[in-house]
Write a structure and sequence with these properties.
- By secondary structure, the chain is an all-alpha fold.
- The chain has 2 domains: 104 residues, Fumarase/aspartase (N-terminal domain) (Fumarase C, Chain B, domain 1, Orthogonal Bundle), CATH 1.10.275; 197 residues, Up-down Bundle (Fumarase C, Chain A, domain 2).
- The protein contains 15 helices and 3 strands.
- The two termini are 44 Å apart.
Length: 382
Amino acid sequence: QANLIRSHSAGVGTPLSVERTRMLLALRINVLAKGYSASCLSWVPEKGMVGASGDLAPLAHLTLGLMGEGRMWSPQRGWDHAKTVGLPTIKDECFIVQGIGLITGTQMMSFLAAEAVERAVGVARQADIIAALSLEALRGTTKAFHTIHAVRPHPGQTEVALRLRSLLHSDVFLSQISGKSHRTCDRVQDAYTLCCIPQVHGVANDNIAFVKSILSTELNSATDNPALDYLAIGVNELASMSERRTEADQPLPQLHDCTLHCCVGWLVAWLVGVFECACTCWAARKAPRTVQHRCFSVLAIELLAACQALEFLHPLNSTTPLEKHIRLFLFPIRPWDHDRQMSPDIEAAHMLLREEKVWEAVRPYMDQYRDRLGLKPLPLDD
């Protein structure tokens, strides 16, 4: 390999400027980062970030592999010593000046932040869809999502209200369930976890947008990431709202009714959603885990519970996007008429949320609703 590089170093002419050489290096790094070439990777422990001093330990482990030392991963040998993988050792003199530059930075915190934001976006937009399912299952009213939200123009709140209107009963998509809401009961209004979805979910969306803007402008300059705590707190509210909608006191007796030979029913699944996940002490590691484990898991339980609850409302049907592409297409779940192992169903729902299948299923209908109202379609990276 060394001879290959030496033999091809046969260029002529004046050298590139410093700026152009850096651009060339950046583009080459971008190609190598895609993972289609070589794929020899350093062994980097996830713990060891120093916060204000940067990611000293992780970046040192990353650089150790470049020096031909430490453990490395290759497709052929898996995790092994760098010498066994076949990487040559670089002389120490080469790192007299560059060592500090190679280990000083916040790249690990930054990529964890970017990962957390990407997952949080998926959680937030699918939480709105699952909340719409729960509202239908609980025969809630759609009046709380009126266009009057625009009078209080918080971006997240108005967007969530619009999403809910595009999924629930409207002139575009009719719902037999919504037409009978509040007509056969003595409720004055829905629980706050239903009628205040735009306000609470909207704040979470605004939090995500705020953190995303920080990452977009300061990805390579921040020395710490307190914004990640802000992200985790905001997204955690989505999980709390979801758990409350699934809670045993909601008017869904079928989910906890022993007369259906379900002595436990959905009680244990609900309890799983109640308890907070144990978080690490650093915000950079905590944020992705909060999104991945707590939020997706709690939303998966609510999704299953709402789909099951809608079974009890047959022959009444919900709107086309909710009925066809969520309950019938994505979740042909067996009725819970007796106790059985629930973990496989929760994991299946969890996987659908991680892959954003729930969002992909209903997004065309949201665009159709916006088109009917003369609104712009959802951006591709929304």
